[in-house]
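Sat 14:20. Reprocessing the chain from the morning session after the first attempt stalled halfway. Input below, unchanged.
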Amino acid sequence: MPEQSQSVPEARTAAAEAPPAGGVSRRALLGSAGATGLVLGAAGAGVGYAAAPAQATPLSSVGSDRAMFHGKHQPGITEGLQARGHLVAFDLAAGAGRTQAVALLRRWSTTAERLMAGEPMTQDDTDVARDAGPASLTITFGFGNSFFGRTGLEKQRPSALDPLPDFSSDHLDKTRSNGDLWVQIGADDALVAFHALRAIQKDAGSAAKVRWQMNGFNRTPGATAHPMTARNLMGQLDGTRNPKPTESDFDQRIFVPASGSSGPAWMANGSYAVVRRIRMLLDDWEKLSLTTQENVIGRKKSNGAPLSGGTETTAMDLEKAKADGEYVVPVNAHARITRPDQNGGAAILRRPFSYHDGIDVDGTPDAGLLFVCWQADPLRGFVPLQRKLDRGDALSQYIRHEASGLFAVPGGAAAGEYVGQRLLEG
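Finished this time. Tokens:
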């Protein structure tokens, strides 16, 4: 779990906003229709009913926020962390090929554009998100290594999509790894996210079947008193050193260039997503003292500041030593090992979700991180960082990589295009 690369969104507040000038949309009116209800309450020994505020705002800023489907890059890469997420991989059905893939990507793109605008599906909508706004919904599409053989496009398969090497922390379930097609769904409302997942599944029809699907979450916008870096399920602030779009070399690190790349032209402005289901061994982690946990990470648990001193954003002093000569930031601390300047500048943009899939029969929680990271080339991003972690990261004994995938995510669709059109019709 490379610390430097965890996603650090531009945090959004959930303060309610007045309806836009010029009227209230049909969705907003629908939202307000159910806003006034009865709330069961108690006063002393008696029980009474209190009406909800009559002037409740039907759409808060969380619901009205909207991401754009069309653009230079696909949505769901540079946007901030979203409260709810679904990751799902599909395999093309037996006998399906390029023709069926074209029709499927057309359907998916039409549905994604409508749902991200807060509109229903063109037909057979389930009405799950009927009362909500877009809630920052993003839907992102990618292609796995196997997709190209299934569609007769082997010559268009990028070398960057070669299978990832094995790592010592891998305990991979192949049935929950890889896939012909990958879809990432994120939103700031759970019903909006589920609505999109169901729509994508229905659109697949007979062309593709679900290979695996995973559900995740993050902190809801507005849950903290002020914007701050998110915490993971280990309780650590996670994302302090993520690359930021304002940095001059951000695009170079994260996106395939439109020209001058050795990769195929259809990947211009696209990116490569590494997806890993990383289980956190929380029972073992929570037995550690606070000091030991901080030494494993290399940062203070309370505020994310480096152990060498300062605040969360203070540069880590790797040479600072204690009186006994030992480094203040241990040599195997996660934050030390994953620094770009310790890895030839390797950097990835992490945009993950936490997950909790229940409790095992022995009482062990099945919980951790749905790791999603973005880079222009995984052989220069994720792979060298993970190899470095394999050689001595203190955090490794408290996590286990249980599923894995690598997907080529093409650039955004222009108006009138569907995602992947330049590959499938090029």
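Residues 4-54 have pLDDT under 50 and may be disordered.
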